[in-house]
Write a structure and sequence with these properties.
Blueprint: H1 20-37, H2 43-49, H3 56-61, H4 66-86, H5 99-106, H6 118-123, E1 128-131, E2 142-146, E3 152-156, H7 163-180, E4 188-190, H8 200-213, H9 216-221, H10 230-240, H11 244-255, H12 262-265, H13 270-277
Parallel strand pairs: 1-3
Antiparallel strand pairs: 2-3, 2-4
Length: 278
Amino acid sequence: MPETRPDLEDFFACSDYCRPENLLTALKTYQDISKKTGNKNPLIFKDLLSKTGNGALFRRSGAGDAKTIETFLWLSQVQRLAESIVSTGKVPSFEKLELYQLKELSKLSLNVENLESVSSHLLNYGIVLIYLPQTAGMKTDGVLFKLSCGTPVIGMTLRYDRYDYYWFTLMHELAHLVLHYEKFNDPHFDCVDDDIDDDIIELQANQASRDSFVSRSDWRTASVRRFHSDEELYKNAESLSIHPAILAGLVRYEAKNYAIFNKLIHQISVRRIIAQDA
């Protein structure tokens, strides 16, 4: 039997997860994490038992490699921050999010200054948005999970400091919330660099995300898809009521050509704006 940890002697674990095999696995993993990282926070042990999802990473992969541990610790921090916000009692209960509401939220992207209030807007829907940079060994852009109370949480790493990337990641996670909320019992991680050609869930979220910015009919007829010029980009952006940087990102993604509109794409520093608001 694993050695007893003094810092866990008075730690209460919810009885729902206290089957002997779960306790032993969680304790062994906790000891392994403590040894590898030096982090002995007993809340990690609670997370390993929690259905909220952090423990699911290790239930699938055992003690986990360095990448799994880094992801787990990052997710634990996101969860703690979200729980502290919910504990204020100022977050309304999440009822449901509809596709038409994605379109409403996407309109915030027309004004760069709205970056400072995106999290507040989402709180009105009962959704908690947390920004937390990823650590070494991770490759994550966003995560969606539920707290035990049912509140949905979106975590974003801001791995790329681009306006189009920020909004694509956010709307992708919100699209999952609309389309797949009931299907995700464990945290759902997303990486924009992943190949999703055969993943129907990711393809659905991508489509809903793009539709929130521009309708399919308007997208089909957008001249900038064929003529990659600044003139066509700004003309289409104005007629479609979409921010030029986001339209440029959509064109780059579809064309798989990340050299076009490169100057425009890097004009806005999302991290700086959000850091100023923190």
